[in-house]
Design goal:
Elements lengths: L1 H10 L13 H20 L7 E4 L8 E2 L16 H12 L5 E3 L12 H10 L3 E6 L6 H10 L3 E5 L5 H7 E2 L3 H18 L5 E8 L7 H8 L5 E6 L11 H4 L13 E4 L4 E3 L10 E4 L5 H5 L2 H11 L7 H5 L2 H4 L10 E2 L1
Parallel strand pairs: 1-3, 1-9, 3-4, 4-5, 5-7, 7-8
Antiparallel strand pairs: 2-6, 8-12, 10-11
């Protein structure tokens, strides 16, 4: 049985099956033990260089997406100085980091230094990616994207229907966004380029869940990959998994060992749920990556997760991620097609 559980954890090949039996006390206790062993084995090999650094060039966006808490964000709107950006990147490079993302709560193409930032990352021989809503990717920016050396761009689009799209991505124009992305795809093909990889992210929710099949059918041969994610409740619309969570254990969240976020002011928040920086784990204004990672704040958060006590942290208690780690919640994980 131990071998079977390990295979399930490793492969997630039964993600569409409801494993209610995992919640039986004896089985659940055994599963926790297997899961803990699996996590500890992974952590023995963990290095700071395994982290992806998500640096927020600015915290400015031009959309009012219904599933995003951007409109509730109270922290000061600002653009990270290019000199400070380079300091952060250089410090992370000292510890072998090779993977950078240029997002947190922002539309990256509103940043006047975005292409300079990408070029700086590429000059250091590291990977650079970003998420965009696609609304600003006109012909001029398309050419700059190719010249910058960007490795990957993920566009967030949630429908092929104007009414649905504009109901979700409020403030954006459907035709403009779709044409921008199609033009980028065509220009890349005409130039015969391998990069950037062009991917899409479809946030599945009540408004668009019936449109997913049509969405995939249209885009599958045009882009490199389609991600299907769930509305994770950051804007508390809706409150997800409340009934499912009642008798479940909160499991260690993989994000703590995968992604470290740097806000536009240089401070490091808990994770993507922490849009206003309520839980600060470090500050690149005064600390190095190693000091932040080894700091008491970060250690305490990680230990609570490793002790299956993520629900003791306010933001983690509201988040779906620690509950997805339970096998009975695997069906809710992000799909890739």
């Amino acid at each position: 049985m131990k071998k079977i559980f390990k295979e399930i954890i490793k492969n997630n090949f039964l993600k569409n099956v409801d494993f209610d039996f995992i919640n039986f006390p004896i089985i659940h206790s055994f599963y926790k033990k297997i899961y803990r062993n699996h996590i500890n084995k992974k952590l023995n090999n963990f290095k700071l260089s395994d982290l992806m650094i998500s640096t927020e060039p600015s915290n400015i966006c031009n959309a009012k997406c219904i599933m995003c808490p951007y409109q509730k964000m109270t922290r000061k709107k600002e653009i990270m100085p290019m000199s400070f950006f380079k300091e952060i990147v250089d410090n992370c490079l000292m510890y072998g980091v090779k993977d950078f993302n240029l997002n947190f709560y922002n539309e990256p193409f509103l940043d006047p230094f975005i292409f300079e930032r990408i070029k700086y990352l590429k000059s250091k021989g590291v990977r650079a990616q970003l998420f965009s809503n696609g609304s600003l990717v006109d012909s001029e920016k398309i050419e700059q994207i190719f010249k910058s050396g960007l490795d990957e761009i993920i566009f967030s689009i949630d429908s092929l229907k104007k009414e649905t799209y504009e109901s979700i991505r409020r403030g954006l124009v459907f035709e403009k966004t779709i044409n921008n992305i199609l033009n980028l795809i065509k220009r890349k093909k005409d130039l015969g380029l391998e990069k950037p990889k062009i991917k899409l992210n479809f946030v599945k929710q009540k408004l668009n869940e019936a449109e997913l099949k049509e969405f995939r059918s249209f885009w599958v041969d045009k882009v490199d990959k389609i991600y299907v994610s769930l509305d994770d409740g950051r804007n508390e619309i809706p409150e997800l998994f409340e009934n499912d969570k009642k008798n479940l254990t909160s499991f260690p969240c993989v994000r703590l060992w995968h992604e470290l976020i740097v806000m536009s002011n240089g401070k490091v928040p808990l994770c993507c749920m922490d849009y206003d920086g309520k839980i600060i784990l470090g500050d690149f204004n005064t600390q190095s990556l190693k000091e932040i990672w080894g700091g008491d704040n970060f250690k305490k958060i990680r230990q609570l997760h490793l002790d299956f006590k993520a629900d003791k942290i306010h933001l983690c208690k509201k988040c779906v991620s620690p509950w997805r780690r339970n096998i009975s919640m695997i069906k809710h994980n992000r799909e890739e097609k």
